[in-house]
């Protein structure tokens, strides 16, 4: 199946839209192939401000109205407890809300940006998507992340080379309670690194310590900016460079 065939078969759809590489291309493709496609962005404590700005920019560029749904991600006890299945409970809560609103707006088919590279076995959230009968056109059409980037570049979509970005909750170790204060600390820290020219990195929080993970080619920049980073990261007990994982 091709995306053109998918949208021919499903001419009216709502899309869970994050402003990331995959959902951005899917929104573009839906419009390209003549579908009545409506993007929904769920705004919560887990999404950094720049993701919302990217989502608005992309929707504006395609001249498609963006529907914004606001929610308190920390209202779900299983999410706050941050067990291994946190993503399942979070995704189930968010997409249930999204689906209910979409149906009220006249959209009975809901799609998301899961691609053929995403390993369903490793993603608790994928189970929630399946239970809610959300369709994943990119996966169904066999399009990988590399395919989506290439197609996005060809289409002139600015997100084509945007680094993959997991929600802020992933910066907090499994088993550690998620709080708004912790999320704000991480978001502020990552915003500052962005302002210094870093990209495709993570600031993870471990017992009050900031662990910075970034590509090897940015190590020299980190050393150059060491003093500025330490001066700014005063909310953390300490700041370390994590060389073991990305």
Mind explaining what this structure looks like?
By secondary structure, the chain is α/β, with parallel strands linked by helices. It folds into two domains: 3-161, HUPs (Rossmann fold, 3-Layer(aba) Sandwich); 179-241, Alpha-Beta Plaits (2-Layer Sandwich). Helix content is 44%, strand content 13%. It has eleven helices and seven strands. It has helices spanning 3-9, 21-32, 49-61, 77-81, 86-104, 124-131, 137-140, 145-155, 180-195, 219-224, 226-232, and strands at residues 12-16, 36-43, 67-70, 110-111, 202-206, 209-213, 238-241. A four-stranded parallel β-sheet has the order 3-2-1-4, with helices on both faces. Strands 5-6-7 form a three-stranded mixed β-sheet, covered by helices on one side. Helix 2 packs across helix 8 (145-155) and helix 5 packs parallel to helix 6 (124-131). The chain is globular and about 55 Å long.
Instruction: Supply the CATH superfamily name of the largest domain.
Output: HUPs
N-C termini distance = 34 Å
Strand coverage percent: 5-15%
The helix count comes to 11
Q: What is the N-to-C succession of helices and strands? A: HEHEHEHHEHHHHEEHHE
The number of distinct structural domains comes to 2
Biggest pleated-sheet summary = 4 strands, parallel
Tell me the overall shape: globular
Taking all residues together, what is the mean pLDDT?
93
Count of distinct strands: 7
CATH class value of the largest domain: Alpha Beta
**What's the Cα radius of gyration?**
19 Å
The CATH architecture of the largest domain = 3-Layer(aba) Sandwich
Proportion of residues in helical segments? 40-55%
Strand order of the largest sheet: 3-2-1-4
- The CATH topology assignment of the largest domain is Rossmann fold
State the secondary-structure class: alpha/beta
Low-confidence blocks of residues = none
């Amino acid at each position: 199946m091709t995306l053109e065939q998918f949208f021919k078969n499903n001419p009216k759809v709502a899309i869970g839209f994050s402003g990331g590489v995959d959902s951005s291309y899917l929104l573009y493709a839906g419009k390209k192939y003549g579908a009545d496609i409506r993007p929904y962005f769920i705004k919560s404590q887990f999404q950094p401000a720049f993701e919302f700005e990217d989502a608005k920019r992309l929707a504006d560029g395609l001249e498609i109205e963006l529907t914004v749904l606001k929610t308190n991600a920390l209202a779900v006890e299983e999410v706050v407890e941050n067990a291994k299945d946190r993503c399942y409970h979070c995704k189930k809560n968010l997409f249930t809300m999204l689906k209910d609103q979409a149906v009220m707006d006249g959209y009975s088919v809901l799609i998301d940006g899961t691609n053929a590279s995403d390993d369903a076995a490793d993603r608790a959230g994928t189970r929630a998507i399946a239970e809610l009968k959300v369709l994943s056109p990119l996966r169904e059409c066999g399009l990988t992340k590399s395919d989506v980037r290439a197609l996005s570049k060809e289409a002139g979509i600015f997100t084509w080379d945007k680094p993959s970005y997991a929600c802020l909750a992933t910066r907090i170790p499994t088993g550690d309670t998620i709080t708004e204060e912790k999320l704000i600390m991480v978001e502020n820290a990552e915003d500052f690194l962005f302002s210094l020219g870093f990209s495709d990195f993570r600031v993870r929080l471990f017992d009050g310590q900031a662990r910075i993970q970034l590509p090897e080619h940015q190590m020299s920049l980190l050393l150059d900016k060491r003093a500025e980073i330490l001066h700014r990261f005063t909310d953390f007990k300490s700041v370390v460079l994590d060389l073991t994982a990305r």
